[in-house]
Design goal:
alpha+beta, seven-stranded mixed beta sheet, four-stranded mixed beta sheet, 6 helices
Length: 253
């Protein structure tokens, strides 16, 4: 099975693997593609299997990554996903090798990626990455791990780190729901407005902060800038919540 690179030249026709089944999903995917178009000049690369399904890798030079990390000279993997039907066939290893080869050709120190101690939705699986040689560079509350794959020996390159303001799992702003998000994932465009509507219906203050630049993302109070929900200043989850899950979060808090 071939690997396809999605570029400015073919992005209109190519699918990007994130499958949203309803008509609303079409506009959400368009928002993701618009986000990608603006990032190609920063060195964004998106590669996927030549198949209709979720098997892809997306990466960018860490200096341009939409994450609050210090990883100069590294290549950062935004998203690396191989769905069930494609697992166990070596496709993930091939996609990762594409990224490694590209990063080495650009003289990078290594790769970085956001993960977690336990397997969680919307984060790359740490156990798989560690088997491939990734190790923990840094940690942030409540469960985030910054993993890296070094290309050099110990001490030959700076160790990647989370920025300090993103380690505490706290936001300084007000009470109620505070949600930081981007269009890096198409699912945010679908579910963020629904979350706000549900909160306001229940008389709960809800502030949305849409991140629109790498600089703004790097100043975020949470490691996962695609979607980070706070309640009364405390980080709750990075998982993009459906209506049902959001109501459960409100009940718990």
């Amino acid at each position: 099975m071939n690997i396809i690179q999605v570029t400015e030249a073919n992005i209109t026709e190519e699918h990007i693997c994130c499958v949203l089944a309803d008509k609303k999903g079409e506009s959400c995917v368009s928002s993701k593609k618009a986000w990608m178009r603006e990032r190609f000049a920063d060195g964004l690369v998106f590669k996927r299997l030549d198949a209709r399904g979720k098997a892809f890798i997306e990466y960018i030079p860490a200096e341009k990554a939409w994450y609050p990390i210090q990883a100069e000279g590294y290549m950062h993997i935004n998203c690396f996903w191989v769905s069930g039907q494609f697992k166990g066939q070596g496709h993930g290893a091939r996609l990762l090798e594409e990224c490694i080869t590209d990063a080495k050709a650009q003289g990078k120190h290594g790769l970085t990626i956001l993960s977690s101690a336990k397997k969680l939705p919307f984060l790359s699986e740490g156990s798989y990455l560690k088997k491939k040689g990734f190790v923990i560079a840094d940690q942030a509350a409540p469960y985030f791990e910054l993993l890296y794959l070094p290309f050099m020996g110990p001490g030959e390159a700076p160790l990647p780190r989370f920025k300090e303001h993103a380690k505490r799992a706290q936001a300084e702003e007000g009470s109620g729901v505070l949600l930081y998000y981007t269009n890096q994932c198409p699912y945010t465009d679908k579910y963020v407005p629904l979350i706000q509507e549900l909160a306001l219906e229940r008389g709960i203050p809800c502030k949305l902060v849409k991140i629109k630049s790498a600089e703004q993302a790097q100043d975020s109070p949470a490691p996962f800038t695609t979607y980070s929900l706070f309640y009364n200043g405390k980080f709750v989850t990075h998982e993009i919540l459906t209506e049902k899950k959001f109501l459960a979060v409100l009940a718990e808090n």
